[in-house]
């Protein structure tokens, strides 16, 4: 590839004249913004172990009252992007959040979409637009863009969950903001009951829901059962994986980030092709090795890692006897909308 002219090749008076007019020559930076064959990736493979993170998170419970934090979160930042950017990948924010018994994280709504993967504890709930979603380990709860949400806790032990947001992207788009609100009145229990049976959806008087997010809570007990059922029913299937979708139309359950649950059968080794989207893996149950480029991470219960795009990823269940269950997040829905999503063989 031809070497292009450098900025310092230009006379200083010319560079000054350009800068005074807010003009920039393209060619010295052209290769940086359009590198050959593969993007310049800042996302590094990185892992956060729950055993290391958990005591630090619990300590914030003593150091910072909820009123001084609103959301008591330790953000899992990828050093490739700079810790101050609070990004796990270019589009994904990850944070581990703690709510202690009796605490309340007040109502607000914001433009970024959020999803919660519950890690530990019982008795907490998230109220989303008046709908009370209980938080049990492994549940996925959506708080989509513009929907009021707050967290409460009537249990007796700390509750911890993983927040997954498209905040970096929405912030980059200069579209990120929040509105504070009053405590919501809970007017319904989770509507997930209406959507728990695959293949049928509520249609009162022949009218289907037009809601963008008709289902807000995906209980782990159901998803786990569905994974085991799929593995039993189709033993020859390539990968035992289920996507979290809008049950009304089958679309991804959120517009920017995509979520799925993956079961690795005992001893299974699964090779995922290189895809353009970076990925987050979070271990719900069991243990697995995640291999990407020169990195290999052992994930045990509630450990989380992220891997950059454009590289194949190997997943191995380290147990010969028990299945391993992973929660997976990526930005494939966003990339598909842009037309830049690709799978490389
Ligand atoms: Fe929020």
Task: Summarize the structure in words.
By secondary structure, the protein is of the alpha+beta class. The protein has 6 helices and 24 strands. The strands form 5 sheets. A 6-stranded antiparallel β-sheet has the order 1-21-18-23-15-14, with helices on both faces. Strands 2-3-10-5-8-13 form a 6-stranded antiparallel β-sheet. β6 (124-128) and β7 (131-135) form a beta hairpin. Bound molecules: fe (ii) ion.
Task: Identify the notable features of this structure and list them briefly.
345 residues; alpha+beta; six-stranded antiparallel sheet; 6 helices; 32% strand; globular; binds fe (ii) ion
Give the secondary structure arrangement, pairings included.
Blueprint: H1 12-20, H2 27-33, E1 46-48, H3 50-63, E2 73-75, E3 93-99, E4 104-110, E5 114-120, E6 124-128, E7 131-135, E8 140-143, E9 149-153, E10 159-165, H4 167-172, E11 178-180, E12 188-189, E13 217-218, H5 220-233, E14 240-243, E15 258-264, E16 269-272, E17 274-275, E18 279-285, E19 288-292, E20 295-299, E21 304-307, E22 313-317, E23 324-330, H6 332-338, E24 343-344
Parallel strand pairs: 7-12
Antiparallel strand pairs: 1-21, 2-3, 3-10, 4-9, 4-11, 5-8, 5-10, 6-7, 6-9, 8-13, 14-15, 15-23, 16-22, 17-24, 18-21, 18-23, 19-20, 19-22
The structure holds fe (ii) ion (FE2).
Fe (ii) ion binds at residues 108, 110, 114, 149.
């Amino acid at each position: 590839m031809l070497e292009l002219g450098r900025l310092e090749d230009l006379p200083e008076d010319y560079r000054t004249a350009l800068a005074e007019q807010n003009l920039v020559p393209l060619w010295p930076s052209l290769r940086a913004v359009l590198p050959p064959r593969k993007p310049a990736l800042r996302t590094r493979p990185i892992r956060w172990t729950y055993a290391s993170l958990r005591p630090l998170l619990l300590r914030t419970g003593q150091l910072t009252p909820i009123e001084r934090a609103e959301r008591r979160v330790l953000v899992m930042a990828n050093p490739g992007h700079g810790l101050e950017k609070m990004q796990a990948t270019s589009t994904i924010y990850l944070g581990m959040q703690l709510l202690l018994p009796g605490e309340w994280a007040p109502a607000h709504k914001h433009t970024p979409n959020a999803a919660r993967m519950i890690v530990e504890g019982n008795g907490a709930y998230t109220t989303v637009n008046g709908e009370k979603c209980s938080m049990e380990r492994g549940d996925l709860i959506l708080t989509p863009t513009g929907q009021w949400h707050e967290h409460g806790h009537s249990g007796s032990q700390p509750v911890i969950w993983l927040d997954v947001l498209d905040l970096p992207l929405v912030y980059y788009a200069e579209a990120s903001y929040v509105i504070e609100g009053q405590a919501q009145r809970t007017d319904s229990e989770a509507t997930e009951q209406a959507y728990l049976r695959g293949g049928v959806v509520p249609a009162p008087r022949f009218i289907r829901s037009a809601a963008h997010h008709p289902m807000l809570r995906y209980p782990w007990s159901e998803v786990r059962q569905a994974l085991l059922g799929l593995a039993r029913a189709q033993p020859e299937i390539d990968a035992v994986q289920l996507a979290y979708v809008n049950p009304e139309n089958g679309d991804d359950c959120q517009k920017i980030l995509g979520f799925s649950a993956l079961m690795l059968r005992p001893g299974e080794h699964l090779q995922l092709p290189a895809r353009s989207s970076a990925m987050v893996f979070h271990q719900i149950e069991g243990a697995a090795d995640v291999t990407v480029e020169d990195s290999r991470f052992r994930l045990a219960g509630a450990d989380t890692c992220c891997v950059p795009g454009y590289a194949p990823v190997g997943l191995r269940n380290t147990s010969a006897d028990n299945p391993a269950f992973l929660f997976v997040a990526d930005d494939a829905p966003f990339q598909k909308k842009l037309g830049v999503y690709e799978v490389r063989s």
